[in-house]
Design a protein that fits this description.
4-stranded antiparallel beta sheet, 11 strands, 49% strand
Amino acid sequence: QVQLVESGGGLVQAGGSLRLSCAVSGRTFKTSVTAWFRQAPGKDREFVAQINGSGGDIWYATSLKDRFTISADNAKNTVYLQMNSLKPEDTAVYYCNTNFPPSPDAYWGQGTQVTVPQ
């Protein structure tokens, strides 16, 4: 059974940094493709970044690529999202999502709250 456990969220002042973690278990991590999404109050869930289990195939939302960095640690079966220069508009619940191509099945974590006050 695939499980995703996110951690690292919290409250940070504008201009600060956070690193989110998504630990993936239950399937071979190296075959995974993991993405971060976020959902702000009253808004749709939006794509942030993705990476495969080998650390390649990296994509970012255009508006975030200068401040956010996604990485993967194959030894720890974990995907990270380093977020720098945080802004109030980054406030959201951040979710990780994993799938194992070519299977269409996708899995979501429980989410971790990031709050950047005005």
